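Q: Start with the shorter request: fold the first protein.
A: Done. Sequence, then structure:
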Amino acid sequence: MDATELSQYSTQHNPWHAAMYNGATAQSPAAGGFVVVNMDTVEFDPSNMCTLGAAAKITIQQDGVYLICGAVTLNSVPDGQRASVAIYVNAAELVRGLDYTVGAVAAQATYSVWTTIYLKTTQFVDLRVQNITNAQAVHPAINSIYLAVAYLGVA
């Protein structure tokens, strides 16, 4: 089997993968609880799993084990300020990613999260960010905010 055949086979027999990102939508989540990150661009989605916008989510279309990855980059995070990111499934927190305080220099900071989990058809996954101590603008650039899922197999 050559590379082209392998690519066609994997898409045909495992189309349950998707990724989306925020390429240009400015966001400034207020300090406080977790809020859904706005996504404006689909990177790949052969099974139409992605929903874009302020309620961005990926809807599962096949029961199985999935790898889920996400990240959010915040602009100019001042010294001593904290933020965090989390993956939610059906509007409930599943796993929290990096939660740290930026030191010394106000700079961009990226908060990432990943996990594997068994999901069922119609469940949905979204990515949320929390400004714990100070509201910061989400950095709008390709792949500075992203969410991706990939079907790994049956449980």
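Q: Next, the second protein, separately.
A: Sequence, then structure:
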Amino acid sequence: HEVINRIQQNDENLRSFDDDMLMLNIDKDILSGQKKPRIGLQTSLGYNLNNTNAGLILLNQSAGVTAALTATWNLWDGGHIKRQKEIIDLRYNIVQRQKSAYLTTIKSRAQSALSRFKVAQQVSASYADNLAIAKENLDIVLEKLKLGSTTPLEVSDAQQRYNLAGQALINSQFDILSAHWVIERMVE
């Protein structure tokens, strides 16, 4: 379970699913906000200068500030906001299902990798036992050879069995490392 938890914490795709769901919730909140009135404030600043010389000199200056507070809202949108919310809900459900399927795949791959690792360890242990037995058999045949009660063919056969058992043990150790590397790659 620890390996699966570490995989889930470090997986970029899972974070992407979570980000997508967060963005969909934000989009839904924005749509909900469109049903509420929008309040605005408009301001303007004006300045006017008139200078005429029609028999009399006239200089007229004026400055002013104008402000307006507005409120607008949709009385009827034809069900557009409702349909957009339904679309967002459908997309949210799709992302949730994709995330769930992806999690299932991750868990399956992790359990398979862990199972492969455990099997490789068990196989390696049995090959280690086989190597010990082959070594013991080789020692017995060598002692028999010293005593003159065996043939060189039996020694050769015992030596081959010992070599095969050693090679099988080395291969099983590689299988353990290979399974471990698969797990490490998944965790990173």
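Q: Describe the second briefly.
A: The radius of gyration is 41 Å. The longest strand covers residues 38-53.
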